[in-house]
Each structure stands twice: as structure tokens, then as C-alpha cells.
Amino acid sequence: MSCSPLPMMTPPSGLAGRTAAPADDDRLTRLAMVARDGRPDDVEAFVRAVYGDVRRFAAYLAGIPAAEDLTQETFLRVLGSLPGFAGRSSARTWLLSIVRRVVVDRFRAAAVRPVVAELPDWQAAAERCQPRDVPGPEEGVALADLLLQLPFERREAFVLTQVSRLSYAEAAELIGCPVGTVRSRVARARGQLVEALLAADQAA
């Protein structure tokens, strides 16, 4: 299959929303296997099914302003690699590994560390992060802002396990480090996020 342009679609609004649950993995993998032959309708069905997860993951790793560009670059790589997808891992895990490589490559190309976003209004961020009955786009924006305060390694481990719902073993395999290291990074990330929210309460 040639690397054709992405199917025309309207990107999901905001970043909040349901991340694909493990129960969806089989369906996404089946869509990927069907799309390997390159039929436009099958490719578009697969891209539509996974677009939101890919964009959210890119935003949580690299920030919202860069998310759309990184998502498009990810899908260019996905379409080029799709014919070789053998289903040895779930399609979602395979996609997240590609997003991660795209983000890391972007950081390396820029020869800088991930930018730490300034968030002057911690109180507003904390309020937006409070659980609500119906999550809205602003909650995803607030979480992305808060995650950008973390070192990349902690952010990556936290997003993979707590947002994208990979197991610690799956995240460790994707990152290429021991499971214990992933657990440590997640624990430190969680602690740093809690400290940020406590700082917001004290500033109120």
C-alpha cells in the first residue's frame, strides 16, 4: 500500500473523552488487520477508530499546540507501516509505540528538552481537574497542562498506564525499561501532580 494522504475527517473536539478500554483492543486490532490491504474505506474506518486516542496521547506527551501536527505525522508512519502489522501486539499498543517514537524524534530533532509550560493560575487548573459527572474538553486541557510540569520519563509512564490504560508490563516493554522503573516513575509522577494540586489549594 502506498503512503496515501490521510482520510478526510473532523478531529474530535477537545482532549477529554473515553480512552479505548482493553475490551476495545480486539476490535481495533481486527480493524487494523483488515486495513492492511489498503482499501480506502477500511483504512478510513481504522483511522477514525483510533484518531482520538492518538491525538490525546500526543497532547499529553508533547502539549496541546503540537498535538495535531504530531498526530498527522504519526498517521503517515502508521499508513506506511500498516501492511506489515502482524497483530503480535494489539493495534492500540502498536499505535502508542509509533506516537512515542514520533514525539521522541521531534524532541531529538529540536535538540531540546520538552518545554515546561507555564501555568500561572494553578487554582483554575485544579478546579478544572476535579471529577465531574460529564467530562468536558477543558478537563483534558487542564490535565495536559499539569502533565507538562513532569519530566518526560515520568509523564510518559503516567500517561501510558493511567491514561491509556496499558499494564505496567506493557508500558515497560514499550518504553524499554524494567517494570519496577515504570512503577517508580508513575508513583513519582502521581506525587508531583498531587503536590501541584495542593499548591493550588494553598494559593486559593
TrEMBL record:
Keyword Transcription found: yes
DNA-binding is among the record's keywords: yes
Domain RNA polymerase sigma factor 70 region 4 type: 142-193
Key words of the record: DNA-binding, Sigma factor, Transcription, Transcription regulation
One Pfam match: Sigma70_r2
InterPro entries in the cross-refs: RNA_pol_sigma-70-like, RNA_pol_sigma-70_dom, RNA_pol_sigma70_ECF_CS, RNA_pol_sigma70_r2, RNA_pol_sigma70_r4_t2, RNA_pol_sigma_r2, RNA_pol_sigma_r3/r4-like, WH-like_DNA-bd_sf
Cited PROSITE patterns: SIGMA70_ECF
One GO MF term attached to the UniProt entry: sigma factor activity
Record domain RNA polymerase sigma-70 region: where: 47-110
Region (Disordered): 1-21
One Gene Ontology biological process: response to stress
Top-level lineage group: Bacteria
PANTHER family: ECF RNA POLYMERASE SIGMA FACTOR SIGC, RNA POLYMERASE ECF-TYPE SIGMA FACTO
Family: Belongs to the sigma-70 factor family. ECF subfamily.
Protein name stated in the entry: RNA polymerase sigma factor
UniProt source species: Sphaerisporangium krabiense
